[in-house]
Design goal:
alpha/beta; Alpha-lytic protease prodomain-like; Alpha-Beta Plaits; 13 helices; 57% helix; elongated
């Protein structure tokens, strides 16, 4: 993870790879310029100019990385990370200037039918060298950019990956002219193929133009504090999983260089005390950093009241939901105060029990203040969501289970028929059994639940090592083949 490494180590790595890129750009510019002047190849000269701008871009990147590494100060409270975005935008301007010059010169040569290029194996060699150097440079830049979330290095990597493509195009043009000369092609064919270098240069210009547009869009979006695609929604969903968070409002995400800044308002139950609200905000910060490891997170707590309802059970469920709790088996005993409430609460299985107890205890206190005269007893249990491997069941055991299902359901007057019996063997849990039952349409939910409960209990008592039973009831009016 990017956040697992010290900032100084990351900055040193970014500066080293930026310096390496600068040296490579200087070497390629010098070689291309010498060979381009020798061969009069517009393709190679355009690549030399391109590499010259690469040299300037690499210098800007190195400067930007050094400036971006400075800590925040009174004049730059969000740090200096935008220097990387400015560098990326400057590279875009340089690329567009290159594109304009190459297009102008190429169109002029095509209009005049002139091709001053001198066929040479040196032209072929320098383009091959350029491709090899750029491929290695892109590999290093992309790896370091991803590890350190650097837009300046990422722009360099994108820039030089297009250099590879443009170098291949120019190589094809230079190689075509050289082969035409070596094979002594007819004059009519030579006139056509001699323009291959110029056409290659124009193709380079097209590649540069569209690459520049993509780079400009990314740099401008970052400078205008555009939030990364879908990141706000992912952060919102993650924070809402924190028990006790009722809502996430006014969520803002901006990026300065590799640094993210996240601001939000959290809605929490109005009865929470300051200490619990502070603990909740820390939990929300940790949730954000699972997505953005080094984010600077600012949270403002807003008290929220629960919606009023006449249904006490609905009120209990709403209160539990505001704490991020799932509740079931809610029972209230007695008609006069004090009345007694017991219920089951579900929390993540990996949560520390002390944390879970504190959260549920806070929920009970708030619920007691909202429903006076109600004494609450809660049972904490883990919530399970799992995906497990399953294995086949021996034929003799499968037949036994099917016979038991038919025998047990036959003794239930409300079960009209059985369908879709499924059997699996689950590690550690034992045999999993599921099936559907057709029941009369007039049953209430309470009666239907009793039917499935009686069938389940009878099967567990009669079949050894039966770990899980799922019974789905279908009313007889539904389509259900017999």
């Amino acid at each position: 993870m990017p956040g697992d490494r010290p900032k100084n180590e990351k900055q040193d790595e970014k500066q080293r790879v930026a310096f390496f890129s600068l040296l490579a750009a200087f070497a390629l510019t010098t070689i291309k310029l010498a060979v381009g002047l020798h061969t009069h190849s517009l393709g190679i000269l355009s690549e030399a100019l391109h590499s010259g701008l690469d040299l300037l871009a690499a210098a800007l990147t190195l400067l930007a990385v050094k400036v971006a590494s400075r800590p925040a100060d009174e004049g730059h409270t969000y740090g200096h990370g935008k220097a990387e975005n400015l560098s990326a935008l400057a590279q875009t301007v340089l690329l567009l200037l290159t594109c304009g010059w190459v297009t102008w010169e190429g169109v002029e040569r095509l209009a005049e039918g002139a091709s001053p290029i001198q066929p040479s194996v040196w032209g072929v060699g320098v383009m091959l060298l350029s491709i090899l150097v750029d491929a290695n440079r892109v590999r290093i830049l992309r790896r370091v950019a991803q590890r350190n979330d650097s837009q300046a290095l990422e722009a360099d990597a994108l820039h030089f990956s297009t250099d590879i493509l443009s170098s291949i195009v120019v190589l094809a043009g230079v190689l075509t002219v050289w082969i035409t000369d070596v094979l002594h092609a007819p004059a009519s064919l030579t006139r056509i193929l001699s323009q291959a270098d110029t056409v290659a240069a124009l193709l380079v210009a097209v590649i540069i133009f569209f690459t520049s547009l993509r780079m400009a869009k990314a740099a401008i979006n970052s400078l205008m504090d555009a939030a990364p695609d879908n990141m706000a929604e992912e952060v919102r969903k993650k924070v809402l999983t924190v028990p006790g968070v009722m809502e996430v409002d006014s969520l803002r995400i901006r990026k300065s260089g590799p640094q993210y800044f996240v601001e939000m308002r959290l809605g929490v139950p109005s009865q929470q005390n300051i200490e619990d609200a502070h603990t909740l905000s820390h939990a929300a910060e940790k949730a954000v950093r699972t997505l953005l490891p080094e984010a600077d997170v600012t949270i403002h707590i807003e008290p929220r009241t629960l919606p009023k309802t006449q249904d006490v059970f609905e009120h209990i469920r709403a209160a539990a939901s505001s704490f991020g709790l799932r509740v079931h088996h809610i029972h209230i005993y007695g008609k006069e105060n004090p009345r007694y409430l017991d219920l089951h609460t579900e929390l993540p299985a990996e949560m520390k029990y002390a944390t879970a107890h504190s959260l549920v205890n806070n929920f009970e206190q708030i619920l007691s203040s909202q429903l006076p005269g109600l004494e609450i007893v809660s049972h904490i249990e883990p919530e399970y969501f799992s995906e497990k491997e399953c294995g086949p069941i021996p034929i003799y055991r499968a037949n036994l289970l099917r016979r038991e299902v038919m025998r047990v359901t036959k003794n239930q007057p409300h079960v009209l028929s059985v369908q879709d019996i499924l059997l699996f063997e689950l590690p550690e849990l034992g045999t999993s059994l599921s099936f559907k039952c057709l029941v009369p349409q007039g049953l209430t939910v309470y009666q239907a639940h009793n039917v499935s409960k009686c069938v389940e209990q009878a099967l567990i008592e009669s079949v050894p090592k039966l770990g899980r039973v799922i019974i789905h009831l279908e009313p007889e009016s539904q389509t259900f083949p017999l």
